[in-house]
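Deviation from plan, reported transparently: KG4 complex.
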Amino acid sequence: MKEKRQVVILGIESSCDDTSAAVVSDGRILSNCIAGQKVHEAYGGVVPELASRAHQQNIIPVVDQALKAAGVDASSLSAVAFTRGPGLLGSLLVGVSFSKGFALASGIPLIEVNHLAGHVLALFIEEEGKSFQPPAFPFLCLLVSGGNSQIIRVNDYLDMQVIGQSIDDAAGEAFDKCANLMGLPYPGGPHIDALAKKGRSERFVFSKPQVPGLDYSFSGLKTSFLYFLRDNLKKNPQFVEQNKADLAASLQRTIIENLLDKLEEAARQTGTREIAVAGGVSANSGLRTALQDLAATHSWNLHIPSIEFTTDNAAMIAIAGYYKYLNNEFADQKTVPFSRFRI
Ligand code: KG4
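Because the crystal trials were delayed, the predicted structure below was used instead.
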């Protein structure tokens, strides 16, 4: 009898400011290497042109590192999966062009992955030595990142439906923009998280959006935070410095309450108790704790990815590529990146 061949996928992620390559074998992660880009810190946000230049510099060393760390050479790969979008076009182009060339040179198929679906499928990455209890279908996933805030009904690996989303800024953007107003470095989310641990979350109250249905809005919060700081700084120029932790904790509580009110409503409307969270903001410790409390209240089965797989990474692209490979979904050399790309 013919021995079943392992499915080994090289994943490539370059949608924003992280160049990442990962290898997944039969759904199990072998390596996940990420080169971040410090160059943006001085600008308080990602500068697209600088991001694509850095991707160009990083992509070959990162892929090399991922293959070596996995102990795999190019000849044993089954396919290369890449992020087609959404993201910054110049950044995406680097990963897409690299993947096309790599696939041609290695004689393996190409698989295109939607970055957002990748974040969700990060919940299915199997790690050596860790228990593996992925969500059962169908489940609801709160996807919260720098570019998106969505509630997704996940019917199967490759069958997802957005049932609520931000009509303006994403939750990560609210963290980053408000952190910037407080003079914190970019990206501000992790800094707010760290400060919030030492602050009083009920000290300041910020406006909550009134958006119908399961949709979100975060731009009003940013504006109300801006005016609040401006008014208080007029009275006391040291206001931010003296109240950093309380400001961070109050801001974080407001964002989390917004996110979870709608998630709770989505769970109620759909009668789902299988709940997950994904994306960069799911690294937030306050959000994780609040989700655990809510899960205990409603008897949800809660699924939270390892911190390593919350922010942008290629392991999530490789795992998504693995399920597309099993489903025979391949791309061809004519494929182009999309800066906007729906699930
Ligand atoms: O998923 P991601 O790496 O990139 C996108 O696909 O957008 O998410 C990046 C976002 C940034 O806005 C960053 O501030 C936020 O995730 N983030 C956090 C934390 N860690 C990352 N936000 C709040 N608390 C954190 N601990």
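Residues 139-305 form a domain with the Nucleotidyltransferase; domain 5 fold (CATH 3.30.420.40). We consider this an acceptable substitute for the interim report.
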